[in-house]
Structure formats: C-alpha cells, structure tokens
Amino acid sequence: MATSTVSMKLLIDAQSKRVLFAEAGKDCVDFLFHILAMPVSNVISLLKKQGMVGSLANLCINNVSDDPRAICPNCNREMTRNVTYVVPPPLVGNKACDEGGFVKGVVTYMIMDNLEVKPMSTISSITLLNKFNVKDVGELEEKVVNLGMNEAVKLLKASLQSKNVLTDVFLKGK
After folding, report:
1. What is the structure's pLDDT at 96?
2. Which residues pair with 130 in a beta bridge?
3. Would you state the pLDDT for residue 1?
4. Which residue from 102, 107, 132, 101 is spatially nearest to 21, judged by alpha carbons?
5. Is residue 70 within 8 Å of residue 79, measured between CB atoms?
6. Which residues of the chain have pLDDT under 70?
7. DSSP 3-state assignment of 170?
8. Which residues of 22-58 are buried (b: 16+ CB within 10 A; e: fewer)?
9. What's the gap between Cα 75 and its chain centre?
10. Is the N or the C terminus of the chain less surrounded, counting Cβ atoms within 10 Å?
11. Measuring CA to CA, which residue among 19, 52, 10 is closest to residue 146?
C-alpha cells in the first residue's frame, strides 16, 4: 500500500447508536482482509501490547532459521523442523499477473458491522435499511474513518470478542 492509512465511510443509525455498514474501496477491504488473515503468531505479538484477553497468548510463536543447530528462543531446543517455502506469483513487467489483493478494484464494497463484506449497490443499501427497520433516513449519519495500524489492532481485537466490530471500535471506542 502506498499510503499509511486507508479510509471507509460509516453509515450510523444515530437513534440506536450502531454502525449499519461501511462503504469502502479495494484498498480498505484488502487492508482489512490482510490484518484478519495474519498468522496467529503475529496476532499474538500485536495484541500483547494492547492487553490481550484469553489464552491465545499461551501458544508458542514459530521461529525460522537457516541453521538447524540454532536454538529456539521460546523452547530452547534445536530448530530442526522443516518448513515449506512458497514461491510468489510470477511477474509480468514489474506487476503481478493479476491486480493482486483479496478483491477486485472496480467495485465499491459494503462492510457490515460483523465484518462481512459484499459488493455494494443502491438496491442492497435500500434492502439493508429495510432490514434494519430504518424509518427516518434523517436519523442516519455519515462518518469517515481512517484506518492505520492502531485501528487495525483495535479491529483485530474486537473481531475476536464481538459480532459488532465496527460499532465497538468506532462508536464505543473499545
């Protein structure tokens, strides 16, 4: 990513104080999927700084060495387990063969409060407003939020604890 933050636009029901959904582009959705697809060892190291709850921190973190005589800093044993190297996709010119990332770039996406992602359309937006029983669209607010590493860690932590991730992070400040 070229920038250090990405942004998304939240649609908030002011009366019930909840995020109905967010509108986001490819860069934001790829960023979100990237943090949610991180290996558990990376998640542990990020969340330890934030005061992680539960037993996830009790897992051993994987270390890699090119010398089988090296000693693991976690278990103090020789590092003799083989790991598989995964070759990156072939390059065409200076770009990957496809557009890269998790989603297509020409689509605007709808990110639900529980982090479900789907392509956005006018009809799907209206259908959701009906589903959420929104009677007065004047009660809806729009809020643009920027996502950097601090917000990424908060989203990751909330996704392990809640089904209302966007509301918890951006409205309740958890």
Report:
1. 45
2. none
3. 42
4. 132
5. yes
6. 1-3, 41, 48-59, 61-62, 83-105, 174
7. helix
8. bbbbbbbbbbbeebbeeeeeebbebbeeeebeeeeee
9. 31
10. N
11. 10
One-letter amino acid identity for 4?
A: S
Q: Which of 50, 27, 35, 18 is nearest to 8 (CA)?
A: 27
Strands 18-24 and 6-13 come out as antiparallel
Q: Comparing C-alpha atoms, which of 56, 54, 33, 32 is closest to residue 43?
A: 56
Residue with tokens 């109905």: 20
pLDDT of 75: 77
Are 36 and 16 a contacting pair, CB within 8 Å? no
| Residue of 166, 141, 161, 156 lying closest to 22 (CA atoms) | 166
The order of strands in the sheet holding 6-13 is 117-119, 109-112, 18-24, 6-13, 140-147
pTM value is 0.69
Whole-number Cα distances in Å, 69 to 61, 62, 84: 18, 16, 18
pLDDT at residue 76 in the model: 83
d(CA 25, CA 104): 9
Q: What is the pLDDT of residues 35-79, one digit of tens each?
A: 888 777 677 777 765 666 655 555 575 677 777 788 887 778 887
